[in-house]
Amino acid sequence: MKKISADVECTIRQFLGLEAMLLDNGRLEEWVGLLDEAILYEIPLRISARKREDEFPRGAFRMHEDMAMIRKRLERMGTAENWAEDPASRTVRTVGSIFVEADEGEGIFRVHSALSLYRQRAIDRAYEWIPARRIDLIRFGDNGECRLVRRTVILAETILQTPNLAIFL
Fold first, then answer.
1. Which candidate, 145, 143, 139, places its Cα nearest to that of 100?
2. Per-residue model confidence as pLDDT tens digits over 92-142
3. What is the pLDDT of residues 52-108, one digit of tens each?
4. Exposure string (b/e) for 26-54, b if CB count within 10 Å is 16 or more?
């Protein structure tokens, strides 16, 4: 296994922490600034299966978005038609178990992490807990700046307890 420099690993960890803070504080326009123009954000459909390799049907997604779709979603959030997030969710993201793999070329690193997301809405006493694993491709630029190129979110649940996934994981 190729060794990752401490500077690169620290910068990627800081990037993931900044991203979580921006999303938790509803600073979505700033969050979009962390995305690469070639972003692919996907949540594959997961089914119960006897064998792990059969859990993800090919080409089936809960979400499969590029930059144009993400921007369209943010545009809709600013309208009165945004019922899924009216009132807005209050979230707390904890990102951990971060493992940075070697450079895949062009300064892109594969980053594995675990996400624990707490979500509560309005005055409802109920809350949701959404656990997931994430596989990110993060571009580490010459200037030390990171950009999220691809995110694959693997939800722990096969049957979602949440009524919608209008938030970014």
1. 139
2. 999 999 999 977 788 999 999 999 999 988 767 778 899 999 999 999 887
3. 777 877 888 888 999 999 999 888 887 767 766 777 789 999 999 999 997 778 899
4. bebeebbebbbeebbbbbbebeeeeeeee
**Continuous H helices in 25-136:** 28-32, 67-77
Q: Show the tokens assigned to 100.
A: 């940075």
pLDDT band for 29, please (50, 70, 90 cuts): very high
Dihedral, CA atoms, 62, 65, 69, 71, nearest 10 degrees? 110
Q: Decide: helix, strand or coil at residue 91.
A: strand
Q: Residues with Cβ < 8 Å from 14, sequence gap 6 or more?
A: none
What's the rounded Cα separation, in Å, for the pair 134 and 120? 22
Residue 138 phi, psi dihedral angles, 5° rounding: -120, 125
Q: Which candidate, 98, 125, 122, 102, places its Cα nearest to that of 13? A: 98
Whether the predicted model's global pTM rises above the 0.70 cut: yes
Say whether the peptide bond before residue 163 is cis (omega within 30 degrees of 0): no
Count other C-beta atoms under 10 Å from residue 4's C-beta. Answer: 16
pLDDT at 1 over 90: no
Rg (CA), the chain: 16
